[in-house]
From TrEMBL:
Catalytic reaction list: ATP + H2O = ADP + phosphate + H(+)
DEAD-box RNA helicase Q domain span: 23-51
Natural source organism: Massilia eburnea
Record SUPFAM superfamilies: P-loop containing nucleoside triphosphate hydrolases
Family annotation (InterPro entries): DEAD/DEAH_box_helicase_dom (IPR011545), DEAD/DEAH_RhlB (IPR044742), DEAD_box_RNA_helicase (IPR050079), Helicase_ATP-bd (IPR014001), Helicase_C-like (IPR001650), P-loop_NTPase (IPR027417), RNA-helicase_DEAD-box_CS (IPR000629), RNA_helicase_DEAD_Q_motif (IPR014014)
Helicase ATP-binding domain location: 54-232
UniProt-recorded name of the protein: DEAD-box ATP-dependent RNA helicase RhpA
Enzyme class label: hydrolase
């Protein structure tokens, strides 16, 4: 389409078979230190995207990798980076001997942390150093790490530019640039930051772009900084994972929270991510589920980084069963054995549906993707089905009785609605959702009457006496004399 070489599952390199089980990581010629780390992780056979991308990246070629979420894109670029940087690895304590040589950009803090954890695991037996920088946290620990010298930096664009401005990091020796989930970065408005970062890098470098989807905007960005890239696609663009079972349930908008609670109870689900479109909606749903006796927590952009990390850690440990999240968590969460995701709200952007349900059914496992929608969401559902080129099966909620949500918040809302329906608002009172009225002091109505002149015996009021004329000042007296009479 762009005149670039295209490598798909039907057109791959001759030394790699289509079936990933027919090739092993040991066949790539990776260093013993890397192979040892892969053995520690229990990795033997690469995924399709890994089998096709790693050999090309080891040749130093620019690559655009398109693969659905959960197929192992991180290892696809991390392993070649580590392999190519081993030529510069050293054990010197001098920061100058450890300049930044590889830069990985990620759209969210969660994804950056996930990539950093994987990179650290893959290069733990090598002298290479890596670190992650992202916003919402104190810059001082990040600054100390950067100034001590690191070869691989994983960063969100905004915080990276903060460190650049404070001269905590130099990008003058970067040899490899990776944009992970590049389409999400554009959606979040990072394009100006990306252009600034690219301008700070050496002109001669290897560029890698990995994402689950490629929009026209992404293709335009890729053409501006990729050099003769090879495009690798292991699945149809915007395709959903085959092992994920999808279903949608139609309910009244007011009963959506009841439906979520019913599904969680009926299926006895644990380790579930529930997606909401709004921060306040995520918080309300989490509080309501907690009031129902469920172990639930919310994660969204208004939470501090520490709160988000604590919630994710508790969820991974099984201390929290239900994580209610906005799309800030739709990318970057790598949770093994996640059996189900629930869309409390259908996403406004159809592509986010692919990323949301990609949280389950990862690495060949099966999973369920459940969505709840109402009449007002018909257009959103139609957009999703058009994007994924398939009809999502409709289901019925057996045994579902609306109105069972027992949270104090819901009861408070209902009582308030009934009370306000029975009477009209008093003077100065406002209805729920309206803007607050300014406070008014009590005023005696006598002061609000128009002025009426006083009358006596029916006669018109006498005119007010004229004010006495001010005597003229005798100027001559002031000048030292008086006029003669």
């Amino acid at each position: 389409m762009w005149g670039w070489p295209l490598l798909t599952s039907k057109n791959c390199m001759s030394d790699i078979e289509n079936t990933p089980e027919q090739v092993k990581f040991a066949d790539f010629g990776l260093a013993p230190e890397i192979q040892r780390a892969l053995t520690d992780q229990g990795y033997v056979h690469p995924t399709p995207i890994q089998a096709k991308a790693i050999p090309i990246l080891l040749q130093g070629r620019d690559v655009m990798g398109a693969a659905q979420t959960g197929t192992g894109k991180t290892a696809s670029f991390s392993l070649p980076i580590i392999q190519l940087l081993l030529a510069h690895a050293n054990t010197s304590m001098s920061p100058a001997r450890h300049p930044v040589r590889a830069l990985v950009l990620a759209p969210t803090r969660e994804l950056a942390v996930q990539v950093a954890e994987n990179v650290a695991a893959y290069c733990k037996h090598t002298p290479l150093r890596s670190t992650v920088v992202f916003g919402g946290m104190d810059m001082k620990p990040q600054t100390e790490k950067l100034r001590s010298g690191v070869e691989i930096v994983i960063a969100t664009p905004g915080r990276l530019l903060d460190h650049v401005e404070q001269k905590n990091i130099s990008l003058g020796q970067v040899q490899m640039l990776v944009m992970d989930e590049a389409d999400r970065m554009l959606d979040m408005g990072f394009l100006p930051d990306l252009q600034r970062i690219i301008n700070l890098l050496p002109k001669k470098r290897q560029n890698l772009m990995f994402s689950a989807t490629f929009s026209p905007e992404i293709k335009k960005l890729a053409s501006s900084f990729l050099t003769d890239p090879i495009t690798i696609e292991v699945a149809r663009s915007n395709a959903t994972a085959e092992r994920v079972t999808q279903v949608v349930y139609k309910v009244n908008e007011d009963h959506k929270r009841d439906a979520v609670a019913h599904i969680l109870r009926q299926r006895e689900l644990k380790q579930v991510i529930v997606f909401s479109n709004t921060k306040i909606g995520a918080s309300r749903l989490a509080r309501g589920l907690a009031a129902e006796g469920m172990k639930a927590a919310a994660i969204h952009g208004d939470k501090t980084q520490q709160e988000r990390m604590q919630a994710l850690d508790a969820f991974k440990k099984g201390e929290i069963d239900v994580l209610v999240a906005t799309d800030v968590a739709a990318r970057g969460l790598d949770i093994s054995d996640l059996p189900c995701v629930i869309n409390f709200d259908l996403p406004y952007n159809a592509e986010d549906y692919v990323h949301r349900i990609g949280r389950t059914g990862r690495a060949g496992a099966s999973g369920d993707a459940i969505s709840i929608y109402s009449d007002k969401d018909e257009r959103l559902l139609a957009d999703i089905e058009k994007l994924i080129k398939q009809t999502v099966p409709r289901g019925t909620l057996d045994g579902f009785v609306p109105g069972g949500f027992r949270s104090d918040e819901r009861h408070g809302d209902r009582r308030r609605d009934r009370t306000q329906a029975d009477r009209a608002p008093r003077s100065g009172e406002r209805r729920e959702g309206s803007s607050p009225l300014p406070r008014r002091e009590k005023v005696d109505p006598w002061f609000l009457k128009p002025y009426e002149p006083t009358r006596s015996n029916g006669a018109p009021a006498a005119a007010a006496p004229a004010a006495p004329a001010k005597p003229k000042q005798k100027v001559a007296a002031l000048l030292g004399g008086l006029p003669k009479g």
